[in-house]
Specification:
heterodimer; B: mainly alpha; two-stranded antiparallel ribbon; two-stranded antiparallel sheet; 15 helices
Chain lengths: ~425, ~375
């Protein structure tokens, strides 16, 4: 913490492309904006479920595992190790939660998930940091190993238990939840009055005081802790310097390999916890194939969020929200969202035109018209397209905002000790 | 320099052997820790397969071989095509629809369907190629996204065009007419000993892979770009163009992956069509060191492990998924042992040169002492 404040600029501001940075309160502003927009949309289109407390609750539960996986990706990639093995580490976490959760109670399940994820992280760290294996190859291998290992372990440990089997564990105790009935009831009355903006805020409040799992709170806390550790401490600065310029870091006396090793271990632990969350909060037992590619989605959310915690949460929220809509007869809701997308795209097109980017503006404007036409042409969006939405959005963000995204400069590069020369 | 070539071959085989031994050792360790009978597991897996099992092994290897080739095309150009999985599902679905409609008679229909599969697989991968070339988007991430998108699109389209399979709740595309199927050939008596006729197409693709990459200007450019972008640019290669073409070719080969099953066994693309063949392809391409014969051996090994492990549950009471651990560990040990053996080879060569220079009659031996 004795590092001068200017030194933290290493990670966020490249010298040639100094840009305006988002103000500190952007996240709160975005949340208010999203709630207001959803509320307006609810009133215009009559899609009731867009911002109900049920939707918000489900969104939170769908968001947290993606966020945790993304957080795992953040730790490792900030230290310069690409972690495509998040999926495998999550899978290991689901078994850890199932096994330890059943035998030793809910909190042991949480610890078990973290530990099993760390086993995956350890494997990745040994392969990439010590043996210098290509990060992607190691990640792919871990995903293959983890899937096989967990299926093997499940048939070894769950088959003889009551209610267990080759593909699922017995039911596990829940992590304690918080419910404040008095506040919740008041908020419910407000929510049901359908007042612009006030009702969605009440719905959000109600979702936060009704059956809120402690694990959700812990996870959000971990996001804050990560931000503080990585961006506000000397430890974090050193860790990030390993991802930006390991040779420079080593020449300044940072144990690059040790930092990378620790970062990947923590990454594994967080991914494991993400798997644990799926087992203990999103459902109540281990099931085969439970992760459903959420490790990859977490990675996408992190990239969507430009390798920053706040952006990562926004990305995870987007995935979580569309995921939820897909499950809750979202065809209607997503149909309503199309209108919003069309209007936003139109606004962006006008803005781009005024910025002098005529060609891009034409493309965006055309997209806006197309989406608008689809909105009026159909009554409901097929559920497959709902589930597809976040991936398409990520792809579009990568395609159109890739110039604004900035990954750690030495991300994915293999570093050998002594390269500082 | 035949000695050097022999040495290279020996080292290559040795590194693959080392990787396998290490992978088997680690798997055994897992079995011991879990308290499963190690000896019984290996003696079950390492038996000579029966004819029926052999047919299964060769059939699965055919599919895995194509998947490995698809990934290897990308590897040669330093591109990571994680999206073989999505590409082959989109392509197999298209081929199933085209073949099922039967616009053309007999084998013309088959050829049209195969062509459609190659084009669609290539186009699907091409999206990632274009994004990489024009917008600098990592092909790893974009192909992962495209895998998920492929799942949704195929699921949606399948429900649009599907007909219900007789006697089950599964839905699938129209059954391919008999005249357009690719006949297999039996290697033994009784049912289940047929080998996909598509095997020959796969072997042809393997030959083309070798020929195009090693014997043509295009292949040289592709490998050059993969090994050194700057050198390629200096010799007049457009890296952007090569990136897109490599992804198109990789995706085109990936488009073939599902077809042996489609034309030789399933005859329809249904909701239960085999998935997950793409990731095995990555492992196999690595194991085979992007060499067409190496990939074939890798595919046979993976198919062998898969098939032989099926008996584990019944005979020894061990979950067959244990071989997935072996397969995953092989990927890691292969990469590590290639690196170790490569360093060993370099050292051998240095010693060889040093000895040659130190021999009486040659002057200045101190030049290589550093």
């Amino acid at each position: 913490m004795s590092i001068p404040a200017t030194a933290t600029g290493v990670a966020t501001v490249a010298p040639a492309t100094r840009r305006r940075r988002l103000p500190r309160w952007w996240f709160a502003a975005a949340l208010v904006g999203v709630l207001a927009a959803l509320s307006l949309l609810q009133i215009i289109t009559g899609a009731e479920d867009l911002a109900s407390s049920g939707t918000i609750s489900a969104t939170i539960i769908a968001t947290v595992p993606i966020m945790l996986a993304g957080l795992g990706g953040l730790w490792s990639e900030r230290a310069g190790v690409v972690n495509i093995g998040l999926e495998g580490m999550m899978i290991l976490g689901t078994w850890g939660a199932g096994y330890f959760g059943y035998h030793h109670g809910a909190w042991a399940g949480v610890l078990g998930a973290i530990l099993m994820g760390m086993v995956g992280g350890l494997l990745h760290a040994v392969a990439t940091v010590i043996f210098g294996v290509d990060h992607i190859i190691s990640g792919v291998a871990i995903n293959i190993i983890a899937l096989g290992a967990v299926q093997y372990l499940a048939s070894l440990t769950f088959v003889d238990l009551p209610g267990g089997g080759q593909t699922q564990s017995p039911k596990i105790d829940d992590v304690p939840t918080i419910t404040i009935t008095s506040i919740g009831d008041h908020l419910q009355t407000v929510e049901q009055k359908d007042i612009f903006f006030i009702s969605p805020v009440a719905a959000l409040g109600r979702a936060l005081v009704t059956n809120l799992s402690l694990l959700t709170l812990i996870s959000l806390l971990l996001l804050l802790v990560t931000y503080w550790l990585l961006w506000r401490t000397a430890f974090g600065l050193r860790l990030r310097s390993c991802g930006e310029s390991p040779a420079a870091a080593e020449s300044l006396g940072v144990h690059v390999l040790r930092y990378k090793f620790v970062a990947v271990l923590i990454s594994g632990g967080l991914a494991g916890l993400a798997g644990g969350f799926l087992v203990m909060v999103a459902s109540s037992n281990y099931r085969d194939g439970q992760t459903g590619g959420r490790g990859y989605i977490g990675l996408a959310a992190m990239i969507f969020g430009n390798w920053r915690p706040g952006g990562l949460l926004a990305g995870a929220g987007l995935f979580g929200y569309t995921d939820t809509l897909g499950l809750r007869q979202g065809g209607d809701s997503v149909h309503a969202l199309l209108l919003a997308v069309a209007i936003i795209a139109l606004a962006v097109a006008i803005w781009q035109a005024r910025q002098g980017q005529q060609r891009v503006a034409v493309v965006t404007g055309f997209t806006a018209l197309l989406v608008g036409a689809v909105y009026f042409a159909i009554d409901e969006v097929p559920s497959d397209f709902v589930t597809m939405t976040p991936y398409v959005v990520t792809l579009l963000v990568l395609a159109f905002a890739s110039q604004r995204l900035r990954m750690p400069a030495a991300d994915g590069q293999i570093y050998r000790k002594g390269s500082a020369g | 320099m035949t000695n050097a070539r022999i040495l290279k071959l020996v080292l290559g085989v040795a590194s693959a052997g080392l990787a396998l031994v290490a992978a088997f050792a680690i798997t055994s360790l897992v079995l011991i820790i879990a308290g499963d009978p190690v000896g019984d597991v290996w003696s079950t897996i390492l038996t000579v397969p029966e004819t029926r099992n052999l047919a299964n092994i060769i059939n699965n290897a055919t599919v895995l071989y194509l998947s490995g080739l698809a990934v290897a095309v990308g590897f040669r150009m330093n591109l990571f095509n994680i999206g073989v999985d999505g590409q082959y599902r989109v392509a197999a679905f298209t081929a199933a629809v085209v073949a099922g409609e039967g616009w053309l008679p007999g084998y013309l229909n088959t050829a049209l369907a195969i062509l459609a599969a190659i084009l669609v697989g290539g186009a699907w991968a091409g999206i990632a190629g274009v994004l990489r070339a024009t917008r600098g988007v990592s092909e790893v991430i974009s192909t992962i996204m495209l895998n998920f998108i492929a799942t949704s699109i195929v699921a949606y389209l399948l429900r649009e065009v599907a007909v219900r399979e007789e006697g089950s709740n599964n839905i699938g595309t129209k059954i391919i007419p008999e005249g357009s199927r690719i006949p297999g050939f039996a290697i033994g008596d009784g049912p289940g000993t047929e080998i996909y006729g598509f095997l020959f197409i796969a072997l042809l693709v393997g030959f083309l892979y070798w020929f195009v990459l090693n014997k043509t200007r295009f292949g040289f450019d592709l490998r050059a770009t993969g090994q050194s972008t700057t050198a390629a640019v200096a010799s007049g290669v457009s890296v952007k163009k090569m990136t897109i073409i490599a992804m198109l070719v990789s995706g085109g080969v990936a488009g073939l992956v599902g077809l042996p099953i489609l034309f030789g066994d399933a005859y329809t693309y249904g909701s239960t069509f085999q998935s997950g063949l793409g990731f095995a392809g990555i492992a196999i391409a690595l194991l085979g060191r992007n060499n067409p014969i190496g990939i074939a051996l890798g595919a046979l090994l993976f198919a062998f492990l898969d098939e032989q492990s099926n008996k584990l549950q019944i005979l020894v009471g061990v979950a067959p998924e244990i071989v997935a651990i072996t397969q995953g560990v092989i990927v890691l040990t292969v990469v590590i042992s290639y690196e170790l053996v490569r360093r060993y080879g370099v050292r051998l060569e240095q010693q060889h040169v040093a000895r040659a220079l130190a021999r009486p009659g040659s002057d200045k031996p101190e030049e290589v002492s550093a």
